[in-house]
Amino acid sequence: MLANIGLDFEQIKPRVDEETIKDSLLSEGLPPRDIADALAEAKARRVSAKEPQALVIGSDQVLEFDGRLLSKPFTPGDAVDQLKELSAKSHKLLSAAVLFEDGRPVWRHISEARLTMRKLSDGYIDEYVARNWDSIRHSVGGYKIEEEGGRLFVRVDGTAFTIMGLPLFELVSYLSLRGYLTT
Question: Is the pLDDT of residue 144 over 90?
Fold first, then answer.
């Protein structure tokens, strides 16, 4: 997404134990929105510690369904189970971004998209996961809406960027305001 809008950047994958952070925050009773924010901040903080002179963007996305968090599927069976659970129901994707400058957080935003899945047959779900496992294995909810997963939904409220994991419009607005981008 960042390359597509003409940003010059280096991608650094931070070594962050997302599951431990998520489990800890869930045990404290934090809502999914705060967990998305905390994960994005942990990633940005880790990279910023190694690259303090850089402007660092950390991001993360969580899926909230019936007041609880769904995680990325570990196996095709997990993806099938998640899609069966989401079938004919609505859920939220919360995409958080935190920007670090000079080793400290200077901006954050959490965007939300609400998605309603169509009623899916068990057979279709099984075939969908088998066809798409390599692509969806790292996607919370077991789908990618920008691929065949677009067939799974009857309604989407929110931006495509939020659904793909980054509040891009808000980030561009901030970077433009600060003079990092010209628009």
Answer: yes
